[in-house]
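Researcher: Let's do a round of design. I'm pasting the structure tokens now; please hold your answer until I've finished.
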């Protein structure tokens, strides 16, 4: 990636980082930072909603009674 592409990708993942600030760093540092950001922000399709994986609860045979 070019330095400009690194800065654009970092800004997409961290909108608080200004392009002027990021431009002060060498490309090697930007690459390392981008890798950390990617680790912290995995792609949405990689995220699994555990509730989608659960089976619906079976119906209870009767009312629930509290026992002390």
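Researcher: That's everything. Go ahead.
Model: Designed sequence:
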């Amino acid at each position: 990636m070019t330095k400009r592409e690194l800065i654009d990708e970092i800004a997409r993942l961290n909108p608080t980082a200004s392009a002027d600030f990021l431009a002060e760093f060498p490309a090697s540092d930007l690459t390392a930072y981008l890798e950390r950001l990617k680790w912290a922000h995995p792609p949405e399709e990689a995220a699994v909603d555990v509730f989608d994986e659960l089976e619906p609860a079976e119906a209870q045979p009767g009312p629930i009674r509290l026992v002390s």
